């Protein structure tokens, strides 16, 4: 046990000790941030929703698309390329996110959590950082996702090579709908248009 004290001048040269606080190991309540991540089919609106949630919660937004485009410009032209470079990015991102969570800041991750294995990775990040986690599932029909992908290609022509119905069908083969038991906090957002 350690005592912290200051001496304060009360009368001329007489000083009285003032106890500021008593500290014992483990007395500090450690505030950790919350990790917020998303599940939803390609085109469900995960990136749009992640930006809104990050702004609403004053959280740090980390976007896989942004990191991949900066670290590997013009190198991702197929699904296999995406898997390769995404796999290289994840260890760096994991440590980075855990450090942010340990400061008490919330982190919104715009990374897919579309398979049980991907969701386990997010949960591992949270558990190791001793933080809370929240999974937001954007539940949308295939038709709605395809319509939103078509609109995205109009707004962002650079995505035309990757954002196709063929790619949607390929990626959707791996989609696993989440269960409430997979996350500490589970939110379902039904997307209807």
- The strands making up the biggest β-sheet line up spatially as 4-5-3-6-7
Helical content band: 40-55%
Largest sheet: 5 strands, parallel
- The CATH topology is what? Rossmann fold
Please outline the helices and strands.
Layout (H helix, E strand, L loop, with lengths): L1 E10 L2 E10 L10 E6 L6 H11 L3 E4 H8 L7 H24 L4 E6 L3 H13 L3 E8 L2 H14 L9 H8 L12 E6 L3
Parallel strand pairs: 3-5, 3-6, 4-5, 6-7
Antiparallel strand pairs: 1-2
Short description:
The chain has one domain (29-190): Rossmann fold (3-Layer(aba) Sandwich). It is 40% helix and 26% strand.
Describe the structure.
The chain is α/β, with parallel strands linked by helices. It has one domain: Rossmann fold, CATH 3.40.50.300. The chain has helices at residues 46-56, 64-71, 79-102, 116-128, 142-155, 165-172, and strands spanning 2-11, 14-23, 34-39, 60-63, 107-112, 132-139, 185-190. A hairpin with a 2-residue loop joins strand 1 (2-11) and strand 2 (14-23). The radius of gyration is 23 Å and the shape is globular. The N and C termini lie far apart (61 Å).
């Amino acid at each position: 046990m350690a005592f912290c004290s200051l001496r304060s001048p009360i009368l001329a040269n007489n000083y009285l000790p003032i106890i500021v606080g008593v500290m014992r190991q483990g007395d500090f309540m450690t505030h950790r941030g919350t990790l917020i991540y998303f599940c939803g089919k390609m085109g469900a609106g995960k990136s749009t929703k992640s930006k809104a949630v990050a702004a609403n919660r004053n959280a740090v937004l980390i976007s896989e698309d942004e990191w991949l485009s900066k670290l590997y410009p013009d190198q991702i032209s197929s699904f296999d390329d995406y898997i390769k470079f995404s796999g290289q990015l994840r260890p760096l991102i994991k440590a980075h996110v855990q450090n942010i969570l340990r400061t008490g800041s919330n982190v919104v991750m715009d990374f897919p959590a579309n398979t049980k294995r991907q969701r386990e990775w997010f949960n591992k990040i949270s558990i190791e950082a001793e933080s809370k986690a929240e999974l937001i599932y954007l539940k949308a029909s295939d038709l709605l996702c395809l319509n939103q992908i078509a609109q995205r290609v109009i707004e962002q022509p650079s995505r035309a090579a990757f954002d196709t119905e063929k790619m949607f069908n390929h990626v959707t083969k791996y989609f696993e709908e989440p269960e409430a038991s997979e996350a500490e906090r589970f939110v379902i957002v039904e997307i209807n248009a």
